[in-house]
Amino acid sequence: MRLPKWFSSVLSTALLAIPFFATTAFADYPSRGMSMNNVKAHYGEPHSVHQSANPVKKRWPRITVWNYGGFSVYFERSKVLHTVVH
Predict the structure, then answer these.
(1) Burial letters for 15-28: b for 16+ Cβ neighbours within 10 Å, e otherwise?
(2) SS3 77
(3) N or C: which end of the chain has fewer CB within 10 A?
(4) Quick one: CA torsion of 14, 19, 21, 23, rounded to 10 degrees?
(5) What is the rounded radius of gyration, in angstroms, for the C-alpha atoms of the chain?
(6) pTM of this prediction exceeds 0.70
(7) DSSP labels, 10-74
(8) How far is Cα 33 from Cα 73, in angstroms, rounded to an integer?
(9) What does the pLDDT look like over 25-49, one tens digit per residue?
(10) Of 48, 52, 54, which Cα lies nearest the Cα of 76?
């Protein structure tokens, strides 16, 4: 069976893209629900820490952001809410 000429270029492009997606999609970042203690034990001390300045209420808990080199971790109370990759 003979393949069209364009097929080899599509296949080579797809194969070249696999390492890029494998490193970004499966990188090791804090996951939702991890505690602050677990994040600190696994990733070390953050470069900087920011906290929300608004009054803390039950409906609006304090949000804390830990900035690491390539990502930031957002906590609600003491649990990971989101991780943002820079």
Answers:
(1) eeeeeeeeeeeeee
(2) coil
(3) N
(4) 180
(5) 20
(6) no
(7) HHHHHHHHHHHHHHHHT---PPTT-BHHHHHHHH-S-SEEEE--SPP-SSS--EEEEE-SSEEEE
(8) 11
(9) 568 999 999 999 999 999 999 999 9
(10) 52
